[in-house]
Design brief:
This protein is an alpha/beta fold and 455 residues long. The protein is 31% helix and 24% strand. It has a six-stranded parallel sheet, with helices on both faces. Helix 7 crosses helix 8. The chain is globular and about 65 Å long.
Amino acid sequence: MNDKRGKTVPDGRDPAERTRRVALVTLGCKVNQCDSAGMAQRLEQLGHTLVGFDAEADVFIVNTCTVTARTDFQSRQLIRRAARRNPSAPVIVTGCYAQVAPELLKALPNVRLVAGNVEKELIPGLVGSLNGGPAEVRVRNIGQTGVFSGLTADRFPGRTRAFLKIQDGCNARCSYCIVPTARGPSRSMPPGDVLERVAALAGSGCREIVLTGVHLGAWGADLSPASGLPQLLRRIEEAGTVGRLRLSSIEPLEVSGELIACLRESAVLCPHVHIPLQSGDDTVLTAMGRHYDRRFFRDLVHRLADEIPGVAVGVDVMAGFPGEGDREFENTLELLRGLPAAYFHVFPYSERPGTKAAALPGKVEETLRARRAAELRALGLAKREAFAKRAVGSRQTVLVEGSRDRKTGRLKGFTGNYIPVLLAGGGRDSMNRLIDVVIESAEAGTASARVCHEQ
């Protein structure tokens, strides 16, 4: 007998063993991207072929996000696009949107399986047997999940930088956030497993590893015995397996003196911290369920800048939360103007059904949210440009990427404190290497540098 591509399939063969061309697309955060990398690696191990989302795929997998209404919309559009691309190909929907709205997604064209975040581990093994028929929902109550998922990749082919998910879920209940409902309680990868994954990623050629999680600063609190992020960072450095280590977003209340000491003293940990502020107004922060005030945040960022030379502090900020009037917004602007921050990530508030914020009074009109977000982004661009200019004349270490800048044709990379750099000269032998440079100029937040030494 023949399969749909004309390949011979022995009679009596288990349908789950059939190999397929699989298109996998991912929306949302680095944690979701880590999950997809794990699925992709497992699919290839099972003999399936990964193809682009616009290619002739036999099966489509959409790993969704639900952090905003826009990502919900994008997820639905990708599902419909897959159905148009190959009307006979089954679509698997997974991720956070699948976790919170499985019945809605089940009804979309060509959807044959809706799998929750825990069930992602099952997907590679089901691809070979999935055909037509009614859609199936495999979504368990993630609120009862207590085990860290082992779905992760130990290689990122062609990448100089790898992302390693070491924590998942969140115990915080910020009033605007649907993520605890979609991701479940906080749970951590055991430290021994973290060290093994770091060694495997470094061994596959990744020079920088970014530790990521939904609530990264909570890593280790659920383990027995309990541990903490600074202890883990010291163990990774002592192992000596990776050249550079970076943290993803971490909550302000979890940036402890011990963590600051790690950032200041480590030879491998990048001087780069991304901290969510969300609002610079105390009334709005309280309504958000954030357990700090503007003074605490201001003092924390100044402490980081004072104690860690050249540190890059990125800040998340939200525009248009319910109850944010002109005075509250000006308080946010005033705080941000005075912070020694390197850049901002700006998000207009997006109402999520089932969250406390969805029932709050004082809704901000959507066009006003957009205008405020634009004003915050403009300030963030000015901060980014000023931060890059302050580095002119300094010596930095750049991880050179595996492709050239499209516009200039020059080699490109990032410093430890996350400044994008274009390099004068250098060939392919410089790619995927840590190179010492001198920053000569900076424009629009991007630096130009000359190579002074390779290591």
